[in-house]
Amino acid sequence: MRRIVRRLVDSQEAGLVLVVVLVTVLLTLLAGSHVDRRTGEMVNNFWNSHTLIQTATDASFFAIMAIGATVVIISGGIDLSVGSIYALAGVSMALALRAAGPMDDGATALLALGVGVGVGLLCGLLNGVLVVGLRVHSFIITLGTMWILRGIAFVATKAESILVPTSLTQIAKASLGLGGGLYPVPMLAMLVVTVIGTIYLTRTVMGRHIFAFGGNLEASRFAGLPLSRIQIGVFAVSGLTAGLAAFLGASFYGSTSSGDAQGYELYVIASAVVGGASLLGGKGSAIGAMLGAVLIILIRQSIRTLHFDQNYEWIVIGCAIIVAVVVDQWSTRLTARRLSRAAAATRAA
Amino acid sequence: MKTSMRIARRLAALVALGAGVACGGDRADRPQGDSARAAGAGATADDRITIAVIAKSSTNPVFLAARTGAEAAARDLSQKHGITVEIAWLTPPQEDAQVQAQRIQQAVNDGADAILISCSDAGKVTGAIDDAVGRGVEVMTFDSDAPRSRRFAYYGVDDLKTGQATMAELARIMGGQGKVAILAGNQNAPNLQRRVQGVREEAARHPGIQILGTFNHVETPQDAAAEVTRVNNAYPDIGGWAMIGGWPLFTQTLLTDLDPARIKVVAVDALPAQLAYVERGITPVLLAQPVYQWGYVGVETIVDKVHFKRDVPAVIPMELVRVTRDNLGEWARQLRTWGFTDVPEAYLRM
To answer: How many angstroms separate the CA of residue A323 from the nearest CA in chain B?
Structure first.
């Protein structure tokens, strides 16, 4: 038991959990309260089931995409096209459902999920193949596909906003017995994807290969790892998670358009980086990505809950990202210096 | 050491949060004015109404005008009725219907009594509006409606007629002949789509008018002005612009880039920055939406509905005001009365 606790405390994410808890406690203390319209009781403006689940829901779409983005970042790459993949996957799903016509709820959900995730996966594979085949940095490739994929979505829909069947919304907004106005499905999806992402990165051969690839490319090459397959695979995962987030988002909000998720790639990358992923590669985790997304949304929520000028939102989030990355780099340099001093001391001995 | 460094990293992010929160320390989005507070002194919970205003974007001047109107109505009604009307400005910094849906939920969670919203995408916010109504929060729309939602009222122009009127004015000025481009803002906005439809329907009644195309853009003045310039260069024989929103006229750049002898322009909206275009004859006609009234009438209607429990009409039509050189001074003075401080002095004296 002590060993488990020790492992948890020493884990990469322990600090982030602490910060999330601290921010939550601070918000609860400072939030104030209001009279609940239905029960007549005083309710804390932040610490109530509606706000907590709403915050988790807001974070869930970014978190799911951030887990995929983290996989790319661990490999030393970057994916700027996730927002556009989200838009294209969403409209593809809506167009497919429209073309298929009325179906029973199960078939509707399966078709929607299949198309959403499938389009996301295809877009990710495209990114990977272009990066490997053209030998151009992923920043440039995904910058280009960011435009291309959103443009395809725009042309395919003629800029129209498309409603999705209400059966999908009923699934995404199922209360699961929690009562009126509470929709835990996106939050639960986020948790499930986090678990799967953690297992993938830490317990599978491919996961280990990704860390090796990102940590030391030359060593991976000499070790005979399938470098091209790894690189294509990470982008496929990123696209897949973007497609899944699109399925969830379109179902939850009831419609989709080519304008969806504009600028979301910045939130997604920020979530991954705040969650501990290193842009140099070789470091990151699914849990960290999820917690990073939750923290960024908590920051956004705090501005709202505390009724501060929302125009400062971008400034605050930007500052938090820079600070987190700078301190992370500082700690990496300190660790490297400590290790080299220890190695020198061992040699001297 | 490793753990403490990680914790230090995370706590540094928390410090940044604290610094940012301190920077944003003026509670700019909460109740306005001493009059509201004075009127509210001693008010009970029943005498306090919080109205969340969620426009499309807080970088668009027309919605800032709506905010001014809403806050003025809050002050006036607070003083008049001895109640406290509070405005919570929850408009996203840039258009994003998903964020609007999230803001609706946040407003309900924060205990708002009502929501006044201009919908970036009716399909995306209808569910959130219905949820809000289901939780006892009244919702009213303005400018861009969500007609299939459970909102209790909509205040705004008839967008189809607005588009038709824009094209009718332009056709008259162009003598019924020439090539026309439509400047249309956000392609996903349902109200703008209907205005475009209105423009095209009216254009079809003028056989000499040819529509070159509908040109969309990010709804910032700079992006809109850049789009106009791009299209003018791409279509040298363009004869007129039907601008279903006034976005590019919030910049000064088209004062020199548009030749009124060659290109005629009719636009919707007439805020102070646009008046120079009327004076110089670049836009002989502006069809003004009294955007200040979005906020003022919206808040008035909500107070009538929520506090006084009065019946209100489901659709409250807004009439356009035709602004030309003849009534430019009168319109400028009206803008000043509505609290616009940037109206050029020269127009106030006309």
So the answer is: 6
Helix (H) and strand (E) counts in chain A:
14, 4
ipTM of the complex: 0.73
Q: Is residue A36 in some structural domain? A: no
Per CATH, the homologous superfamily of domain B27-157+291-318 is Response regulator (3.40.50.2300)
* Residue A185 distance to chain B (closest CA, Å): 16
Tell me if chain A has a CB within 8 Å of the CB of B148: no
Q: Min CA distance, B187 vs chain A (Å)?
A: 6
Q: Measured between alpha carbons, how far is A206 from A212 in angstroms, rounded to an integer?
A: 10
Q: Are A19 and B30 a contacting pair at CB < 8 A?
A: no
Task: Report the predicted TM-score, pTM, of the whole model to 2 decimal places.
Answer: 0.79
Per-domain residue ranges of chain B: 27-157+291-318, 159-288+322-348
Quick check: B10 and A18 CB within 8 A? yes
- What pLDDT sits at residue B15? 47
CATH class of the domain at B159-288+322-348: alpha beta
Hey, which residues 37-76 in chain A have their CB within 8 Å of chain B?
37-38, 43, 45, 48, 50-51, 54, 58
Residue A199 belongs to what domain range? Answer: 50-307
A56-70, A300-314, B246-260, range with the lowest pLDDT: A300-314
CATH number at residue A248: 1.10.3470
> Domain total for chain A?
1
What is the C-alpha to C-alpha distance for residues B119 and A186, in angstroms, rounded to an integer?
A: 23
Segment B263-285 mean pLDDT: 93
Chain B from 237 to 296: CB within 8 A of any A CB: none
How far apart, in whole angstroms, are the C-alpha atoms of residue B269 and residue A141? Answer: 41
- For A93-125, write each residue's pLDDT tens digit: 999 999 999 999 999 999 999 999 999 999 999
